[in-house]
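Hi there, hope your week has been kind to you so far. No rush at all, and the record is pasted right below.
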Amino acid sequence: MKTKATEIVTAFMEALETKEFDKAATYLSDSFQFSGSTPLPLNKDQFIRYSSDLAEGMPNLSYHFHDIQEVEDLLGEGDRVSAAIQITGTHTNTFQIVPLGLPLMPETNNSISLPVEHWEYVIKGNTIASIRVEQVPGGGIAGILQQLGIDIPIIQ
C-alpha cells in the first residue's frame, strides 16, 4: 500500500525521470538538502541544476527507481522513505555541472551504469526535506566521471 510519503517520493522521481525539473522542484522544501553523492551537500536549486546538467549531457539518463518502502522514523525527522536507484545513461552531449564547479565536458559517447545506491528521503509536511545517498564504491558523481573516462577534480 502506498502512503502519502511514498506517493510524494514516487511523483518526484517520475518528474526527474521524465526530465520535468520545474515539476520535480515543487516536491522539494525550500530548505532541501541532497547529500552523499556529491562532495558537499546541495540545496534545492543546486540539486535541480545538477540533475538538469546531468540530463543535458546524457539525454537517456535514467534512475531505475525501485524497491520503495517506508522506513520507521526513530529520529523524529519526519516521514522516511527509502528506495533503490541505479543511474544509467550515455554521454552524447557536451555538458557542464555548474553546482560542482566542473568545466565543460565534451561528449565521450561512453555509457554509464552505476551500482545500486539506496536513497533515503525525509518528508516533512508535503515536501521532501532531504535525500541522503548511501555511499557505495563506484557510485555518486565520482563514479559517473570515472565511467565517462573524465579525470578532473571536483571543486565544490
User: Anything to note?
Assistant: The beta strands are 28-35, 42-43, 66-71, 79-85, 88-90, 111-113, 117-124, 127-133. The chain has a mean pLDDT of 93. The domain at 4-148 is CATH 3.10.450.50 (Nuclear Transport Factor 2; Chain: A,). The CA atoms of residues 39 and 140 lie 9 Å apart.
